[in-house]
Protein backbone atom coordinates (compact mmCIF):
# COMPACT_ATOMS: atom_id res chain seq x y z
CA UNK A 1 0.00 0.00 0.00
CA UNK A 2 1.45 3.23 -1.20
CA UNK A 3 -0.09 5.89 0.95
CA UNK A 4 -0.62 6.56 4.61
CA UNK A 5 -4.28 7.48 5.11
CA UNK A 6 -5.11 10.82 6.68
CA UNK A 7 -8.32 10.78 8.70
CA UNK A 8 -10.33 13.88 9.36
CA UNK A 9 -11.83 14.25 12.82
CA UNK A 10 -13.58 17.57 13.30
CA UNK A 11 -11.01 20.25 12.66
CA UNK A 12 -8.11 17.89 13.25
CA UNK A 13 -6.34 15.44 11.02
CA UNK A 14 -5.13 12.10 12.31
CA UNK A 15 -2.32 10.05 10.84
CA UNK A 16 -1.26 6.67 12.20
CA UNK A 17 2.19 5.58 11.16
CA UNK A 18 2.40 1.80 11.01
CA UNK A 19 4.99 1.17 8.35
CA UNK A 20 8.58 2.17 7.90
CA UNK A 21 8.73 5.67 6.47
CA UNK A 22 11.14 5.17 3.60
CA UNK A 23 12.00 8.23 1.55
CA UNK A 24 9.25 8.36 -1.04
CA UNK A 25 6.48 7.39 1.37
CA UNK A 26 7.58 10.06 3.83
CA UNK A 27 7.65 12.75 1.16
CA UNK A 28 4.21 11.65 -0.09
CA UNK A 29 2.92 11.88 3.47
CA UNK A 30 4.35 15.38 3.87
CA UNK A 31 2.74 16.56 0.63
CA UNK A 32 -0.60 14.86 1.30
CA UNK A 33 -0.76 16.23 4.80
CA UNK A 34 0.01 19.80 3.80
CA UNK A 35 -2.53 19.59 0.99
CA UNK A 36 -5.15 18.24 3.38
CA UNK A 37 -4.46 21.03 5.89
CA UNK A 38 -4.87 23.54 3.09
CA UNK A 39 -7.99 21.90 1.64
CA UNK A 40 -9.82 21.33 4.90
CA UNK A 41 -8.59 24.28 6.94
CA UNK A 42 -7.62 21.87 9.69
CA UNK A 43 -6.25 23.51 12.82
CA UNK A 44 -4.36 20.56 14.20
CA UNK A 45 -2.52 17.45 13.05
CA UNK A 46 -2.14 14.38 15.27
CA UNK A 47 0.55 11.92 14.29
CA UNK A 48 0.31 8.62 16.13
CA UNK A 49 3.62 6.77 16.25
CA UNK A 50 2.67 4.14 18.83
CA UNK A 51 3.47 1.40 16.33
CA UNK A 52 6.91 2.81 15.60
CA UNK A 53 9.56 0.97 17.56
CA UNK A 54 12.64 2.03 15.63
CA UNK A 55 13.41 5.60 14.72
CA UNK A 56 16.23 7.20 12.81
CA UNK A 57 17.30 10.75 12.09
CA UNK A 58 15.33 10.74 8.82
CA UNK A 59 12.09 10.10 10.62
CA UNK A 60 12.91 12.71 13.25
CA UNK A 61 13.53 15.23 10.50
CA UNK A 62 10.28 14.35 8.73
CA UNK A 63 8.29 14.94 11.93
CA UNK A 64 10.02 18.28 12.40
CA UNK A 65 9.35 19.25 8.76
CA UNK A 66 5.67 18.40 9.01
CA UNK A 67 5.35 20.48 12.16
CA UNK A 68 7.07 23.48 10.55
CA UNK A 69 5.03 23.23 7.36
CA UNK A 70 1.70 22.92 9.14
CA UNK A 71 2.61 25.83 11.40
CA UNK A 72 2.98 28.21 8.46
CA UNK A 73 -0.51 27.09 7.45
CA UNK A 74 -1.73 28.00 10.96
CA UNK A 75 -2.09 24.46 12.26
CA UNK A 76 -0.31 22.74 15.12
CA UNK A 77 1.22 19.28 15.09
CA UNK A 78 1.13 16.88 18.03
CA UNK A 79 3.07 13.64 17.96
CA UNK A 80 1.35 11.05 20.16
CA UNK A 81 2.02 7.56 21.46
CA UNK A 82 5.79 7.67 21.39
CA UNK A 83 7.37 4.55 22.87
CA UNK A 84 10.00 5.14 25.56
CA UNK A 85 12.72 3.52 23.44
CA UNK A 86 11.92 5.90 20.60
CA UNK A 87 12.20 8.90 22.91
CA UNK A 88 15.57 7.64 24.11
CA UNK A 89 16.84 7.14 20.56
CA UNK A 90 15.64 10.54 19.39
CA UNK A 91 17.49 12.33 22.16
CA UNK A 92 20.59 10.21 21.67
CA UNK A 93 20.48 11.21 18.01
CA UNK A 94 20.41 14.84 19.11
CA UNK A 95 16.83 15.37 17.87
CA UNK A 96 14.79 17.05 20.54
CA UNK A 97 11.81 17.60 18.18
CA UNK A 98 11.73 21.29 19.00
CA UNK A 99 8.57 22.88 17.69
CA UNK A 100 6.68 19.59 17.86
CA UNK A 101 4.15 19.12 20.62
CA UNK A 102 3.91 15.65 22.09
CA UNK A 103 1.29 13.81 24.12
CA UNK A 104 0.99 10.35 25.57
CA UNK A 105 -1.98 9.24 23.51
CA UNK A 106 -4.50 10.50 20.97
CA UNK A 107 -7.00 11.65 23.56
CA UNK A 108 -4.43 13.69 25.44
CA UNK A 109 -3.16 15.06 22.12
CA UNK A 110 -6.66 16.18 21.20
CA UNK A 111 -7.16 17.87 24.56
CA UNK A 112 -3.83 19.63 24.08
CA UNK A 113 -4.88 20.87 20.65
CA UNK A 114 -8.26 21.96 21.93
CA UNK A 115 -6.61 23.89 24.74
CA UNK A 116 -4.17 25.54 22.34
CA UNK A 117 -6.66 26.33 19.61
CA UNK A 118 -9.84 27.05 21.47
CA UNK A 119 -13.22 25.65 20.46
CA UNK A 120 -13.30 23.13 17.64
CA UNK A 121 -14.38 25.20 14.61
CA UNK A 122 -16.11 23.86 11.58
CA UNK A 123 -13.97 23.05 8.59
CA UNK A 124 -14.16 25.13 5.43
CA UNK A 125 -14.80 22.29 3.02
CA UNK A 126 -17.17 19.63 4.21
CA UNK A 127 -17.10 17.66 0.98
CA UNK A 128 -13.36 17.16 0.92
CA UNK A 129 -12.27 13.58 0.64
CA UNK A 130 -10.33 12.52 3.70
CA UNK A 131 -9.04 9.25 2.40
CA UNK A 132 -6.47 10.39 -0.10
CA UNK B 1 6.00 -3.70 12.75
CA UNK B 2 4.07 -6.48 14.31
CA UNK B 3 0.91 -4.90 15.60
CA UNK B 4 -1.81 -2.66 14.32
CA UNK B 5 -2.29 0.14 16.85
CA UNK B 6 -5.69 0.64 18.40
CA UNK B 7 -6.46 4.25 19.28
CA UNK B 8 -8.96 5.23 21.92
CA UNK B 9 -11.16 8.21 21.19
CA UNK B 10 -13.74 8.81 23.90
CA UNK B 11 -15.79 5.63 24.14
CA UNK B 12 -14.78 4.46 20.69
CA UNK B 13 -11.77 2.60 19.42
CA UNK B 14 -10.20 3.43 16.08
CA UNK B 15 -8.12 1.09 13.98
CA UNK B 16 -6.54 2.07 10.68
CA UNK B 17 -5.58 -0.82 8.47
CA UNK B 18 -2.63 0.10 6.29
CA UNK B 19 -0.87 -3.18 5.77
CA UNK B 20 -1.88 -6.50 4.33
CA UNK B 21 -3.69 -8.50 6.98
CA UNK B 22 -1.90 -11.81 6.76
CA UNK B 23 -3.09 -14.56 9.06
CA UNK B 24 -1.15 -13.95 12.24
CA UNK B 25 -1.50 -10.17 12.13
CA UNK B 26 -5.26 -10.46 11.61
CA UNK B 27 -5.64 -12.83 14.53
CA UNK B 28 -3.51 -10.56 16.73
CA UNK B 29 -5.70 -7.63 15.74
CA UNK B 30 -8.86 -9.59 16.60
CA UNK B 31 -7.51 -10.53 20.02
CA UNK B 32 -6.11 -7.08 20.79
CA UNK B 33 -9.33 -5.41 19.76
CA UNK B 34 -11.56 -7.66 21.82
CA UNK B 35 -9.27 -7.23 24.83
CA UNK B 36 -9.34 -3.45 24.40
CA UNK B 37 -13.13 -3.43 24.18
CA UNK B 38 -13.25 -5.45 27.37
CA UNK B 39 -10.63 -3.37 29.17
CA UNK B 40 -11.96 0.05 28.22
CA UNK B 41 -15.66 -0.68 28.02
CA UNK B 42 -15.68 0.88 24.56
CA UNK B 43 -19.10 1.07 22.94
CA UNK B 44 -17.97 1.31 19.35
CA UNK B 45 -15.14 0.21 17.08
CA UNK B 46 -14.23 2.10 13.92
CA UNK B 47 -12.13 0.25 11.37
CA UNK B 48 -10.73 2.47 8.68
CA UNK B 49 -9.88 0.57 5.50
CA UNK B 50 -9.35 3.56 3.22
CA UNK B 51 -5.80 2.41 2.53
CA UNK B 52 -6.93 -1.08 1.58
CA UNK B 53 -7.14 -1.43 -2.18
CA UNK B 54 -7.20 -5.21 -2.48
CA UNK B 55 -9.47 -7.41 -0.45
CA UNK B 56 -9.95 -11.16 -0.27
CA UNK B 57 -12.38 -13.47 1.44
CA UNK B 58 -10.03 -13.80 4.44
CA UNK B 59 -10.18 -10.09 5.13
CA UNK B 60 -13.94 -10.07 4.65
CA UNK B 61 -14.25 -12.85 7.18
CA UNK B 62 -11.99 -11.08 9.67
CA UNK B 63 -14.14 -7.95 9.53
CA UNK B 64 -17.25 -10.04 10.07
CA UNK B 65 -15.62 -11.87 12.98
CA UNK B 66 -14.58 -8.65 14.68
CA UNK B 67 -18.09 -7.27 14.34
CA UNK B 68 -19.65 -10.41 15.83
CA UNK B 69 -17.15 -10.57 18.68
CA UNK B 70 -17.54 -6.92 19.62
CA UNK B 71 -21.32 -7.24 19.48
CA UNK B 72 -21.36 -9.91 22.16
CA UNK B 73 -19.34 -7.45 24.26
CA UNK B 74 -22.05 -4.85 23.65
CA UNK B 75 -20.11 -2.73 21.18
CA UNK B 76 -20.85 -1.95 17.54
CA UNK B 77 -18.38 -2.07 14.67
CA UNK B 78 -18.36 0.39 11.78
CA UNK B 79 -16.12 -0.14 8.78
CA UNK B 80 -15.26 3.20 7.21
CA UNK B 81 -13.51 4.50 4.11
CA UNK B 82 -14.09 1.51 1.86
CA UNK B 83 -12.88 2.12 -1.67
CA UNK B 84 -15.41 1.44 -4.44
CA UNK B 85 -13.25 -1.33 -5.91
CA UNK B 86 -13.17 -3.06 -2.53
CA UNK B 87 -16.96 -2.90 -2.26
CA UNK B 88 -17.26 -4.44 -5.74
CA UNK B 89 -14.83 -7.23 -4.89
CA UNK B 90 -16.54 -8.04 -1.58
CA UNK B 91 -19.91 -8.45 -3.25
CA UNK B 92 -18.43 -10.45 -6.10
CA UNK B 93 -16.90 -12.73 -3.48
CA UNK B 94 -20.35 -13.18 -1.98
CA UNK B 95 -19.47 -11.29 1.21
CA UNK B 96 -22.11 -8.71 1.99
CA UNK B 97 -20.63 -7.94 5.44
CA UNK B 98 -23.94 -8.56 7.12
CA UNK B 99 -23.88 -7.36 10.71
CA UNK B 100 -21.18 -4.81 9.94
CA UNK B 101 -22.15 -1.16 9.75
CA UNK B 102 -20.37 0.90 7.14
CA UNK B 103 -19.85 4.63 6.66
CA UNK B 104 -18.04 6.73 4.09
CA UNK B 105 -15.47 8.20 6.44
CA UNK B 106 -14.47 8.31 10.10
CA UNK B 107 -16.59 11.35 10.90
CA UNK B 108 -19.72 9.80 9.43
CA UNK B 109 -18.88 6.55 11.20
CA UNK B 110 -18.64 8.37 14.51
CA UNK B 111 -21.95 10.11 13.95
CA UNK B 112 -23.50 6.75 13.12
CA UNK B 113 -22.17 5.24 16.33
CA UNK B 114 -23.28 8.24 18.36
CA UNK B 115 -26.77 7.95 16.90
CA UNK B 116 -26.90 4.24 17.61
CA UNK B 117 -25.43 4.35 21.08
CA UNK B 118 -26.67 7.62 22.45
CA UNK B 119 -24.47 10.07 24.34
CA UNK B 120 -20.76 9.33 24.49
CA UNK B 121 -20.26 7.79 27.94
CA UNK B 122 -17.07 7.86 29.91
CA UNK B 123 -14.89 4.79 29.75
CA UNK B 124 -14.48 2.56 32.75
CA UNK B 125 -10.71 2.55 32.86
CA UNK B 126 -9.06 5.86 32.20
CA UNK B 127 -5.55 4.62 32.82
CA UNK B 128 -5.66 1.85 30.28
CA UNK B 129 -2.85 1.96 27.76
CA UNK B 130 -4.22 2.48 24.26
CA UNK B 131 -1.04 1.84 22.39
CA UNK B 132 -0.70 -1.85 22.76
From TrEMBL, chains A, B:
Residues of the STAS domain:
1-113
Which InterPro entries does this UniProt record tie to the protein? Bact_StressResp_Reg (IPR051932), STAS_dom (IPR002645), STAS_dom_sf (IPR036513)
Recorded hits in PROSITE patterns, A to Z, give: STAS (PS50801)
Q: Which SUPFAM superfamilies does the entry link to?
A: SpoIIaa-like
Q: Domain of life, per the record?
A: Bacteria
Xref: PANTHER family = RSBT ANTAGONIST PROTEIN RSBS, RSBT ANTAGONIST PROTEIN RSBS-RELATED
Q: What is this protein called?
A: Anti-anti-sigma factor
Amino acid sequence: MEKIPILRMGSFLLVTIQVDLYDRLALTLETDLINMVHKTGARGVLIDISAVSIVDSFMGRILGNIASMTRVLDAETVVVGMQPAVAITLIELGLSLSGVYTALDVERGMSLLQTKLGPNDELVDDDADDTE
